[in-house]
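ARCHIVE CARD
Drawer: 12
Card no.: 0347
Subject: one protein chain, sequence and derived structure
Cross-reference: see card 0346
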Amino acid sequence: MQTHAPEHRIKPDKIEMKKPKLVAALLAVIALAGIFVVFEDTPAGLRPVDEGVAADSAEPPSVTAHGGEDPLLLPTDSLSTRWFYSRKSTALLGIALVIHGLNLHPDRMGPIINRLTRSGIDVLRLSLRGHGDNFAHRDDVDRDSARLESFKNVSYALWTNEAYLAYRQVRKRSQQQNAPVFLAAFSIGGLIGLDLFASHADVHFDRIVLWAPAIALRPTIYLERVLSPFPRLVIPSMADDAYLANKKGTPVAAYNALFDTLYHFEDSAGPKLNVPTLVFIGEKDEFIPLQGLKLLVSEHHLDQWKFHLIEKDEDTPSGTFHHHIIDAASAGKQTWKKMMTAAIAHLSAENKE
């Protein structure tokens, strides 16, 4: 492997700005995204999410942990997870934890899940707090407003806790079925899954498939950090509404959780991550730099990682984000078919060896 010079990542505590520059940077963030910021009061009368797991069939039950003040041991709402079972009658190929992207509706991971289950893989889909049905419900506020309110209160600890408890469910089922454990994740979902893997001795994935993982970011994304003292501010998204969990936008709290997870991952990343991993990424991705991913792989000697470069079909709508490569609509039918063929071949390779 080629050796590269160490990458100097930009962190907020390493950015030195005079006040005029800070103000200019703040204005640049807003102008860059073409956005306005939405302020909303904190609603009162929140109640916990109703218990229960939305599943395609009964069993296995949700797993919760108890005890202590460690955020990894605090129980999470059962509506954060949903099981989808293999459609094959043969032995399971594996058990996959599927995690969506930032402000992406969990249902948009459906095409990936459908392909996995058709290939003989059980799937546990994690919906991070503030997405899908995973939010604090209110009797006097509509679902969209209640979901956004929960989104304004997310954190690294909360999302990591949810991912850890979801992983425990996957691990339990893998032990019951004597099947390997997979991670299949998009964007921040990949970051959260990899951070969990790198930093916790009891977490292990046998094989991994990632779609544009947020383990490296373009420098312009770090401009969002100047808004970090205002977690309740909502930054409208330029993505297609059909992909969004919250159409009004993404709160700064969620970006804070993203950066906190990234910095924790950077401190934890190491040789443990060197398992067979397939990464789908496009050179035009607005958020994730291909060279940044390759540098990380080189720095940590991850020689079992492979990149699958994405060029979207010519007939893909021009307004589609390059970052979105999670279905036929965003990547193009032919490109999507090739991607999923490669993903299933990668996950099934162990059984063929």
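Annotation on reverse: The CA atoms of residues 67 and 73 lie 6 Å apart. The first strand starts at residue 81 and ends at 84.
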